[in-house]
Every structure is written in C-alpha cells, then in structure tokens.
Amino acid sequence: MIARLTGTLAEKRDDHAIVDVNGVGYRVQLSALSLAALPPPGERVAVRTYTHVREDALQLFGFATEEEESVFHELMGVKNVGPRAAQNILSGIAPRELARAVAEGDVARLTKVPGVGKKTAERLVVELKEKLVALARAAAPRTPGAAAGLFDQLEQALTGLGFKPAQASAAADALREQGGERPLDELLREALKLLRS
C-alpha cells in the first residue's frame, strides 16, 4: 500500500495531479482544496495517499493534510460512500466545516455540497456525529482572527495554483470586502472566477 509520495509535481489537472517519483509518474486523485494547496508544477511536493484496489483498477487518492485524510477515511465508513464520493464531498466542503455541519445536524448545509442529497446528508449526520467530535470542536470558534486566517489560507491556495502573490492578495481583498461568512472552498471558487474573468 502506498501511503505517501514525495517527488516533483509534473502536472496538475482539475481533479488529479501527477507526481514524478524517480522517473515514475503517479496519478493521484485530489480534492479541490488539496489541489489548491499544491505548489506549481516543477516543484517538490509531498502528498499523503490512500491506495484503493478494485478488480479493474488501482487508484491513489491524495491529501494535503492529515486532517483531510482522516475525514476521508471516516466518510468511506458511511454506507454507500466510496473513495470517489468521499473525495467529491471534500471538494465541496472543508474537513472542519464538514465536521461542524455534522455535529450541528445541519442537513441544509450538507445538501449544498455537490452530489450530496438529503438522504446522504442525514446518513452523514447519524453515522459521523460521534466520530468527528474533536474536529467539530476545533472548527467551533469563529472569531475575527479566524476570518483573517481564512483569507491568508485563500492567498496561499491561490499562489499554490500558480497565481502571483499580488493577484492572490487582490482577489482575497475583494472577497474580504464583500463580507459574509463563507467556507474556504467557496471562497476559492469565487476567487478563481474573479482571477479568470
């Protein structure tokens, strides 16, 4: 089982990256947030991985953080949620935001995640409530400092996608001025729209 890859980032696509490890290119499926955290192609990278083996395929799923990997494994323990679905969920909501929604039984927030219907959202709440308690506690404090940190993370994610620091800062400032409390994944999507328009 491949648990970690360290090498050169060869390519970065919409839902995966190719990591070159001593001349061998490994295709790693990644969530939108993990992809955003990667450096530009050509730079050194290290990703945590989960190896999924099926009769007809061998797939690697990657994570930028231990937190995301941990939540991914918990999601796969939910009935009818496989690795691809778990990663799709993590592309639509950050791990801490997911934990907080599950802890609060916020089915409405969970159904805003692409691919998550009401039944799946209710199942996530029932099956994960106890398992994600510690992460939900970490997500609970919402202070002005936390909001500032969110925009710092947004800038880092944008520079990781190859935008210049000045561009990343301008996009983060524009979204900060709009106000309103939004999760990082939503801010990232809005920033990319701004930068690509």
Descriptors for this entry?
197 residues; alpha+beta; OB fold (Dihydrolipoamide Acetyltransferase, E2P); DNA polymerase, domain 1; Helicase, Ruva Protein, domain 3; five-stranded mixed β-barrel; 10 helices; 52% helix; hydrolase; helicase; ATP-binding; Hlx-hairpin-Hlx_DNA-bd_motif
Textual characterization of the structure:
- With 197 residues, the chain is an alpha+beta fold.
- It has 3 domains: 60 residues, OB fold (Dihydrolipoamide Acetyltransferase, E2P) (Beta Barrel), CATH 2.40.50.140; 74 residues, Orthogonal Bundle (DNA polymerase, domain 1), CATH 1.10.150.20; 53 residues, Helicase, Ruva Protein, domain 3 (Orthogonal Bundle), CATH 1.10.8.
- Helices cover 52% and strands 19% of the residues.
- The chain contains 10 helices and 5 strands.
- A hairpin with a 3-residue loop joins strand 1 and strand 2.
- Helix 2 crosses helix 3 and helix 4 packs across helix 7.
- The radius of gyration is 17 Å and the shape is flat.
Summarize the structure.
The chain has 197 residues and is α+β, with helices and mostly antiparallel strands. It contains ten helices and five strands.
β-strand number: 5
CATH architectural type of the largest domain: Orthogonal Bundle
CATH class of the largest domain: Mainly Alpha
Unreliable runs, pLDDT <50, ≥5 residues?
141-145
Helix tally?
10
The proportion of residues forming helix, as a percent range, comes to 40-55%
Order of helices and strands: EEEHEEHHHHHHHHH
Order of strands across the main sheet? 1-2-3-5-4
Measured on Cα atoms, how large is the radius of gyration? 17 Å
For this structure, the CATH topology of the largest domain is DNA polymerase, domain 1
Separation of the first and last Cα atoms = 42 Å
Q: Whole-number average pLDDT?
A: 84
Number of domains: 3
Morphology: flat
Largest sheet: 5 strands, mixed, barrel
Q: Superfamily at the CATH H level of the largest domain?
A: 5' to 3' exonuclease, C-terminal subdomain
Which strand-content bin applies to the residues?
15-25%
Structural class: alpha+beta
